[in-house]
Amino acid sequence: MSISIPFDNSYARLPAQLFTHLNPTPVSDPKLIAYNAALAAELGITDEGSEEDLARIFAGNDVPTGAEPLAQLYAGHQFGQWNPQLGDGRAILLGEAKGCDIQLKGAGPTPYSRNGDGRAWLGPVLREYVVSEAMHALGIPTTRALAAVETGEDIYRETALPGAVITRVASSHIRVGTFQVLAARGDQEGLQALFEHAVDRHYPDAGSPLEFLNAVISAQAALVVKWLSVGFIHGVMNTDNCAISGETIDYGPCAFMDAFHPMQVFSSIDRRGRYAYGNQPDIIVWNMAQLATALVPLVENREAAVAEFTAAVHAMPAMIQRLWREAFAKKIGIANPRPEDEKLVTDLMGLMGKQEADFTNTFRGLSEGNARDQFVDREAFDDWSETWEKRLESEDNPTDLMRSVNPAVIPRNHRIEAMITSAVQGDYGLFHTLQDALASPYDTPKIFPDLLHPPKDEERVTATFCGT
């Protein structure tokens, strides 16, 4: 075969109730859209084939040597409601390379598809490719995009849409919901095996379920603060979309804010704002409480475990607040924040919210000298700025600090939608432009200046949608 992947399939050696072995369903006419050669090299993948060969592999038509394809089982709370069995309804894990999962998404039906076709259409595939790689460039833990392929087949949602498959890479696809399904079924043996596997793979220093829980809590707290710091809204923070590794996973109705609003929602299915921008810290605490509940059966003294796990979860909001304070202090040029600096940040964000200032351009503008332009009431900004500038007098190199944490360019919703519209018509130019610009988000793009601009009124995206 023209491609060699150094597979070592540790997940496939776990108890059989955690997955179903099956191959991807072949497609009629696979064509390669994109291949992440740099990521492939990191995974030890060697490639001597043509684009046609790569397309067949990453569409699922050819299964690479050494792969053990499977669909994973999990459960989860979806918008707070318990669903006792979910699973990979359109994703198939080929195996692991260099400790990372390689998974085809949109690879056909599985036993967990719930009467779905197991396919993905082109739009969500391109969104996930662009946004996940942008998140990586921003320094935010995330799944990665290895390849995207057209299938040559239409799939049907409300209308006929072009089909596609994305190959994504993650340090694992183990979710809070993976633990939940075993705990809910009273599967002590399976739960213990999953726990040991997750510890070995992600947190080898965790010697007990409590230490494991604390490690996951720390990773998730850091992740959500990073989301907040760039104005990212995940959109579907269900426990089945919450990875144990602390990586961002499942880019469905995700979005980056333009005008700042603390309770901004884009997801068309989040009708009550459960996963709004400002609710994300509370929701990740809720998700960790569900993980804690699933881990209790692993401890012999369950009463003591409940007390210890509850204390760990209850300590999480203060941890998030501390990390938020540190992250947003850096965004205004303060390396070592004092308690009173939190008010400086919240005062600025209060002004941003009242005047619908652009989130990204306001923070970036603090280091460029043009943040004032984002406000209608510029005198109000000037009053805030006077206090801020005095505070920066005691800081070293605040401008460099701000430029290192405030991106100039993000994958704005209207650009993503324009990219998808063009791609459906066969034009991938904007897809490649976004890929190039977003690879260096902290640099002001010299050849793509229009990517810095918020949407015009007629370009605004008010709702984003899942790709199922």
From TrEMBL:
Record Pfam families: SelO
Top-rank lineage group of the source organism: Bacteria
Residues the record lists as binding Mg(2+): N241, D250
Known EC number: 2.7.7.-, 2.7.7.108
Cofactor(s) needed: Mg(2+); Mn(2+)
InterPro entries: SelO
Stated family: Belongs to the SELO family.
Function comment: Nucleotidyltransferase involved in the post-translational modification of proteins. It can catalyze the addition of adenosine monophosphate (AMP) or uridine monophosphate (UMP) to a protein, resulting in modifications known as AMPylation and UMPylation.
Name of the protein: Protein nucleotidyltransferase YdiU
Organism expressing this protein natively: Cognatishimia activa
Gene transcribed to yield this protein: ydiU
